[in-house]
Amino acid sequence: MPRVPVTTSRREQILSEAARLFARHGFHGVSIDGIGAAVGVSGPALYRHFPSKEGLLAEMLVGISEHLLAGGQERAAEHADPAALLEALIAFHTDFALRQPELITVQDRDLANLPDVARRRVRGLQRAYVEIWVDALVRAGLAPGEETARVGAHAAFGLMNSTPRSAGHTRADVAAPVLVAMTRDALHALRSAT
Amino acid sequence: MPRVPVTTSRREQILSEAARLFARHGFHGVSIDGIGAAVGVSGPALYRHFPSKEGLLAEMLVGISEHLLAGGQERAAEHADPAALLEALIAFHTDFALRQPELITVQDRDLANLPDVARRRVRGLQRAYVEIWVDALVRAGLAPGEETARVGAHAAFGLMNSTPRSAGHTRADVAAPVLVAMTRDALHALRSAT
DNA sequence: TCGTCACGTTAACGCTCATTCACGTTAGCG
DNA sequence: CGCTAACGTGAATGAGCGTTAACGTGACGA
Asked: Which of A23, A106, A121, B73 has the smallest number of Cβ neighbours within 10 A?
C-alpha cells in the first residue's frame, strides 16, 4: 500500500531551489550535486524524486506553461469584453513575472535544453497562451491581423518579462504599476502603427 | 615581421557561426568541435584564433556591448533635445535587435558564463548604455526619477529584444515600425504611470 | 514484531568535452 | 632557396558530471 508522503515539501523544495540555480547559472551551469547541496541532501538523492536532470527541468517548464495557460483561460472565460480581457491578462502576467522572476528566466532561456517530447509540449502550451492574447488583440480592434497581433503579444511579454533584469534594484510594488501602464500603452500603439 | 592575415575572415567567420550556435543551443550546449565543424575546420583549430572557449564568448559579448554603447554615445552627441534623442535611440536599438537577433539572444542569456573579469567589463558597458537612456528619459520629463527611468529603460529593451521570439515568422520590415511605435508609447506611459 | 517502502548515502562507471601536444603544410620574406 | 610563422590536424590528457549500483535506516501497516 503506497505510503502518502508526509513531506510533500521535498519535491517542491527541489523544484524551487533548482529554479533559483538554473536562473542564475543556466541549466548546464548547475550540477546535480549543486542542486542537492542547495536542499541539504547530496547528489544522487534527487533520483528518488525525478527520473533525470532533464526530467526535473521538464516538470518545471511544463508547470510554468500550464500555469500561464490556465490563468489566461480563466481570464478569457471571465471577460467577454476584449478590452477588459486585455486588462486582466496584463495584470495577471505582470503579477506572475514580478512574483516569479526565476521561473520567467528559466522558461525562456532553457527551453532548448528540454528533450524533444517535453519541448514540443511546452511549445504547444505557450502557443495556446499566445493565441489568447492574439485573439483578444484582434477582437479589441488593436491589431489589424493576427501577424501584427503576434508581434505585439511577444513584445508585450518581453516588456513584462524584463522584470528579472530590473528586479533586484527595484521593489515589486513600485515596478508593477509602471509595467502595467507601459504594456497597456504599448499594445494600444499597435492601432496607430499600421 | 608579423604577416598580415590574408583572410581576416576566419576570425569573423568563427565569431559569426559561434553566435548562431550559442543562440540556438546555449554556450554549454555547443562544443568546440561543433563550432569548428560549422566553419569547416576541426576542433582545436580554434585555439589558433582564440585563447579559450570563454575567451571567444568574451570577445563576442564585449563587442556587442561596445557597439551598443558607441551607438548610444553617437546619438547622444548628435541630439541635444532629449525627445529627439529618445527617438534616435529607439530607432538605433530596434534596428540592431532586428538585424542581429542571435547576438541579442546570446548577450542576455550567456552573460553568466563569462569569466569574472570579462563579465564585469560587459556589465560596465551595459550600465553606461542604460544610463544614456535613463538620462534622456529624465531630461525629457518622461520619468520623475532615475529609478522609474531605469525600470522603463529595461522594459523598453525587453520589448525591442523580443525580436528573436517573433522573428522567424515575421519579416523585419513589417516588425520594425510596430516595435518602434510600441516602444515609444510604452516610454510615454511612464509619465502618467506615476 | 516483521516486512516493506520511502528516502538517503558513498563509490564506481562511462561519456563528453575543453585543452594541450607533436606533428604537417603552405606562403612569403630575407 | 631556406627559415619562419600562420594555420591545421589527429591523438592524448584530465576533469567534470549525469547516472547507476550496492548498501543502510527508520517508520508504518499487517
From this structure: B73
Alpha carbons A126 and A108: distance in angstroms, whole number: 11
Residues 6+ apart with CB under 8 A from A88: A75, A78, A79
* Identity at A106, one-letter amino acid code: V
What is the separation of C-alpha B100 from the centre of its chain, rounded to a whole number of angstroms? 8
pLDDT digits (tens, 9 = 90+) for A115-159: 999 999 999 999 999 999 999 999 999 999 999 999 999 999 999
Cα separation, A149 vs B104, in Å, equals 22
- Nearest Cα residue to B183 out of B147, B142, B145: B142
Note the pLDDT of residue A43. Answer: 86
Cell 548604455, residue? B129
Å separating the CA of residue B189 from the C1' of nucleotide C17? 49
How close A143 comes to chain B (CA, Å)?
Answer: 10
Q: How far is CA A186 from CA B19, B89, B135, in A?
A: 30, 17, 21
Closest residue, CA to C1' of D16 = A31
d(CA A179, CA B190): 9
> What radius of gyration do chain A's Cα atoms show?
19
pLDDT at B6: 46
**How close B132 gets to chain A, by Cα (Å)?**
16
Question: Residues B104-133: pLDDT tens digits?
Answer: 999 999 999 999 999 999 999 999 999 999
Is there a contact between B28 and A26 if contact means CB atoms under 8 Å apart?
Answer: yes
pLDDT for position B8: 63
Residue in B154, B181, B182 closest to A166 by CB: B154
